[in-house]
Amino acid sequence: MRYEFIRAEKAMFPVRWMCRLLDVSRSGYYAWVEGNDSREQRDRQILQVIREVFEENRATYGSPRIYRELRQRGIPCSKPRVERLMREAGITPPRKKKYRVTTDSNHKNPIAPNVLQRDFTSPAPNRRWVSDITYVWTSAGWLYLAVVLDLFSRRIVGWAMDSRLDTESLPLRALHMALFSRAPDRGLIHHSDRGCQYTSQAYRDTLRARAIVCSMSRRGDCWDNAVAESFFATLKLELIHRHIFRTREEARLAIFEYIEVFYNLKRRHSYLGYMSPAEFERVVEIAA
To answer: Where are the alpha helices (DSSP H) in 183-271?
Structure first.
């Protein structure tokens, strides 16, 4: 505090006089100034990289992801330092909104048991998939998105979009994409909510033909499919709620680019030790 006072008042009073008055040495004061200036300069350098990382990742990263990105780039810094610099600079990612239930379970189709039982781990790729549907507003009307997510790497392995929801083809197209790209073995567990799209005859027949075990959430319980819901919350937080889409095609292109370029390949996932889904799969494959 005494050194700070001297620094603040040195334009008005001689440093020698203030050091003597406050009973501190001039050499100690100047050493403190040099070290303090060095820390401030280093803070400015780190903050510049923080801003770059924040913008490169679509202004979506909080301090945990930015800290790990800095460490990977070989920039020595502590997590509290990154948190402090971001707080002081007003660098904050958007915050998630509350979940709303949208599943239509008012039908008489057969319901599969909850095989997954909220166990969202997976010992290997293509052992456990979760699927869900959400909606995106555009100036031209609603656009519906169905995804299939691999619980092992949290990678989106299948997706489809459509202007209509009252058709079983939307989730089926996402499922067929996942089956084509991943070619899972028999016994894969496929979990979804109990919406009419997933309980339809065509969807159940497709699962049965590939010897896939069907699992469904309990009625009105979003936590039974929490990983899929979490992906949608992230998608809306980082993309949908930050744009006004004039057309469905504009929304399609933005969602495609977010999933295939950013989320799957680049975005650091906290569940994966802050690796991207693609990087996590590569690391596991190399280790095996």
So the answer is: 196-199, 201-209, 226-238, 248-257
pLDDT tens per residue across all 288 residues of the chain:
677 787 778 778 888 888 888 888 888 877 777 776 567 777 888 888 899 999 999 899 999 999 999 988 888 888 998 999 999 999 988 776 554 445 555 556 789 999 999 999 999 999 999 999 999 999 999 999 999 999 999 999 999 999 988 767 899 999 999 999 999 999 999 999 998 899 999 999 999 999 999 999 987 667 899 999 999 999 999 999 999 999 999 999 999 999 999 999 999 999 999 999 999 999 998 886
3-state secondary structure of 109: coil
Bridge partners, residue 130, by sequence: 149, 191
Q: Which residues contact 288 (CB under 8 A, 6 or more apart)?
A: none
Strands 155-162 and 141-150: antiparallel
Separation of alpha carbons 202 and 192, rounded Å: 15
Residue 182 and residue 178: Cα distance in Å, rounded?
Answer: 6
Residues 6+ apart with CB under 8 A from 256: none
261: exposed, middle or buried (Cβ count in 10 Å: 0-12, 13-18, 19+)? exposed
Q: CA separation (Å) from 87 to 79, 83, 205?
A: 12, 6, 53
Residue type, 100: R
d(CA 86, CA 83): 5
Residue 238 neighbours by CB under 8 Å, 6+ apart = 58, 60, 94, 258
With beta carbons less than 8 A apart as the criterion, state whether 158 and 268 touch: no
Give the span between the Cα atoms of 60 and 57, in whole angstroms: 6
Query: Under a CB-based contact definition with an 8 Å cutoff, are residues 130 and 189 in contact?
Result: no
